[in-house]
Design goal:
alpha/beta; Rossmann fold
Length: 391
């Protein structure tokens, strides 16, 4: 992709219509307020049910890029399995990033429904849920009357300034991730610095790839699910200049016909399917992998998504009974690895066994039915868990 096309993406694609980070299950949050307790939206607090699960809030100050004497309040959630406190060893850290205009509470409670915590307990890793900053660089909202959307934010990567003006990049989210890690280190948590992984959904998937691109020496690997866009460091992107890509492993999961992303890209004359597949090829090349060694597997189509749906909404009809194709490459000599899973005909959401309701699939967000043939976090963790930072 040329730099000129990337500029068009920055100005047009990542617009107000792309506040799309919630998975389908999150859209149902309003029907079950009893699930979340009495959370009042403070950046220093969270829903009381999360406290009961030993999910804790952490905050820290972060200087702004253009005026470092001014700081903003950033936050994240963390979960540490009890056994980690009881043992003398070092453990991996997984940082999970929500989608655009969402929050860590939403992605944890409704999108993932505690599955990351259960996986952390089983596999023994530390877990952090990142929190993006408000799109207009305003302080995190204290919305007691709208707790689901409190502390929502939008991640800053190489692409996009969603109508927020020239100060959008005054917040540095690469620096934010580094500070999350430093904050956890300051608590004397036994982080294995060679096994830090960053995983994101939608706009969060975009930032996960951005971290893999711009700060690949910080992490051992990344995973992105239905990312808006992402390219290796050797491709110039918006404010990010091209340079050599670090040997950082990546697994990306995307829907080539994404019912949210494809129409937006099409509206400015760009083909999302072609672009996302081109960037996969770019990652293979930048990581030094041999494209002729690709191993292609059709995953079992075990669920007919949307079974029984009789409506007429196009994005719901077009995302029924999706299937998944996985491509793995032989690791490079330096240890870098890449895999992708194409969700053919799937909606915009995190693959999981639980399906979306017909109402959620039909919603004006155009999410459709997400793929249910596998559980994304299990597949991503299996790919990443043996990866170590390449020095």
């Amino acid at each position: 992709m040329t730099f000129q096309i990337k500029q068009r993406l920055s100005k047009t694609v990542i617009g107000s219509s792309l506040f799309i980070g919630l998975s389908l299950s999150a859209l149902q949050a309003f029907s079950s307020p009893e699930m979340v307790g009495n959370y009042q939206g403070s950046p220093y607090a969270t829903w009381d049910g999360l406290y009961e699960q030993n999910v804790q809030v952490r905050t820290f100050a972060q200087p702004l890029v253009n005026n470092p004497s001014e700081v903003i309040l950033r936050r994240f959630l963390q979960y540490i399995p009890q056994k980690i406190y009881e043992r003398q060893s070092q453990y991996p850290l997984v940082i999970v990033l929500h989608g655009g205009n969402s929050s860590p509470e939403l992605v944890k409670e409704f999108s993932m429904q505690d599955r990351w915590e259960r996986l952390a307990d089983k596999e023994q890793f530390m877990l952090a849920y990142g929190n993006a900053y408000n799109i207009n660089n305003d302080p995190a909202p204290l919305e007691s009357d709208a707790p689901y959307w409190a502390n929502g934010g939008y991640w800053r990567s190489c692409v996009g300034d969603p109508g927020a003006g020239p100060d959008f990049y005054n917040v540095d989210d690469v620096d934010y991730i580094k500070r999350v890690i430093s904050q956890m280190q300051s608590e004397a948590l036994p982080i294995d610095m060679d096994r830090i992984y960053i995983i994101g959904l939608s706009n969060g998937g975009e930032l996960a790839e951005h971290i893999a691109s711009q700060s690949g020496d910080l992490i051992a690997g990344a995973g992105s699910v239905v990312p808006v866009y992402g390219a290796p460091k050797n491709i110039p992107s918006g404010p990010c200049a091209a340079s050599e890509q670090a040997a950082t492993s990546l697994i990306r999961i995307y829907s080539p016909q994404d019912p949210v992303l494809a129409p937006i890209f099409n509206s400015i004359g760009l083909n999302y399917k072609e672009l996302i597949q081109q960037t996969s090829a770019a990652w293979v090349h930048a990581l030094g992998l041999n494209p002729t060694t690709a191993n292609v597997t059709y995953l079992e189509n075990s669920v007919s998504e949307g079974d029984g749906y009789t409506g007429s909404i196009p994005w719901a009809l077009n995302t029924m009974n999706s299937y998944a194709i996985r491509t793995d490459y032989e690791a490079a000599n330096n240890g870098a690895d890449f895999a992708e899973i194409q969700l053919i005909g799937a909606g915009h959401g995190w693959p999981e066994i639980k399906g979306a309701t017909f109402e959620a699939a039909e919603s004006s967000g155009q999410f459709g039915f997400h793929n249910q043939d596998f559980v994304a976090e299990e597949v991503i963790w299996e790919f990443l868990k043996s990866k170590r930072k390449i020095k």
